[in-house]
Design goal:
7-stranded mixed sheet; 2 domains; Rossmann fold; 6-stranded mixed sheet; alpha/beta
Length: 337
């Protein structure tokens, strides 16, 4: 197999928003929430036009909207594909001829995944994505992230061709702090072999321990006697702030499993950092579109507006979509044995 190496893609670290590059983008996009790390980056990035996406899952009122930037208010009861498509359509911008930067820090995960899925089908060259590490979570491992749980379903545009043979189905969970949602996913796919991706190295030294504590709570709620949710043989450790290494490690794990026994159906559920979510999406659109692989998520009506304190580091990741399409064309997929 001649598989793509995602680590070839460019990433750069900045220590403060003031260090962000001064060269101007044509378009800068960010999803609004109360986080200092979202607002500070929006203020400092240089762009001809800067746009806020207001997502209904944060439940803002008009009086709480930002006073700078161009605002788009996503209607309620829209699926992630409808929300992203209508937002991009409202911009009236030719993305194929624009220098684009997107801050993913405030995005709801299914919307971020669909955004990458949308871009892979455009004749677009590259996009810069920004993610900002926090100093800490507001209530450590007890930080609330989501509420008003609705259902587990496939993320729009990420529905694989289902294989009726299910004897070797896998579920790979990017496990964050939201143990209730991890339990929801595990119960929904209770007959799968479950794999957890933990952020290690974590964003901060204490966050790995906090992450594991929440994973054990999810295991207690999801135990079915068939497989431990935390299984050393089915655990992947990927840097919490590196989408490219995350994609490489997903590729490596799945390649090894396919060699041992072909995976019948694969389900991917990114619930950790937005950087790891970007890695899941990157891997999916490059290697999984023609195979029995789906991305699923435990959808909720409400997400916390602010879960973190401070700014630790800022990362810029450049996704070169032309290179990803070349890998698709050559069928450089870990599902090709």
């Amino acid at each position: 197999m001649n598989l793509i190496d995602y680590s070839i893609f460019y990433k750069r670290k900045y220590l403060t928003p003031d260090e962000l590059p001064k060269d101007s983008y044509d378009v800068f996009i960010s999803a609004f929430n109360d986080s200092e790390r979202v607002k500070s980056v929006f203020e400092k990035v240089q762009a001809s036009s800067k746009h806020w996406l207001i997502l209904p899952e944060y439940q803002y009122t008009p009086a709480e909207y930002p006073v700078t930037g161009i605002i788009y208010i996503s209607p309620i009861n829209k699926t992630e594909d409808e929300a992203i498509f209508s937002f991009i359509d409202s911009l009236g911008i030719d993305f194929t001829k624009s220098k684009i930067c997107i801050d993913i820090t405030g995005f709801v995960r299914p919307h971020l995944v669909y955004l990458v899925r949308y871009f892979i089908d455009l004749p677009i060259d590259k996009v810069d994505f920004i993610y900002t590490d926090p100093v800490t979570y507001v209530k450590k491992e007890n930080t609330p992230f989501s509420d008003e749980y609705v259902e587990v379903r496939q993320i729009a545009g990420c529905q694989g061709l289902h294989n009726p043979e299910t004897s070797n189905d896998f579920l790979i969970i990017g496990s964050g702090y939201d143990n209730r949602r991890i339990s929801d996913i595990a119960k929904h796919k209770d007959k799968t072999i479950k794999v957890q991706v933990f952020g290690f190295p974590s964003l901060q030294p204490d966050m790995y321990q906090e992450n594991i504590l929440k994973a054990y709570l999810a295991e207690e709620a999801s135990a079915d006697g068939r497989q431990s949710l935390i299984d050393p043989d089915y655990t992947i450790f990927a840097p919490a702030n590196d989408p490219f290494i995350t994609a490489n490690l997903l590729q490596s794990f799945i390649s090894k499993e396919n060699i041992k026994q072909q995976i019948t159906n694969l389900y991917l559920s990114p619930m950790a950092t937005k950087a790891q979510t970007l890695g899941f999406a990157l891997f999916y659109v490059t290697e999984c579109l023609e195979y029995p692989v789906s991305m699923i998520f435990p959808f909720c009506n409400h997400y916390s507006r602010e879960t973190t304190k401070g700014i630790s580091k800022i990362w810029k990741y450049t996704l070169e979509f032309n290179e990803l399409r070349k890998a698709q064309f050559k069928k450089n997929s870990c599902f090709v044995i």
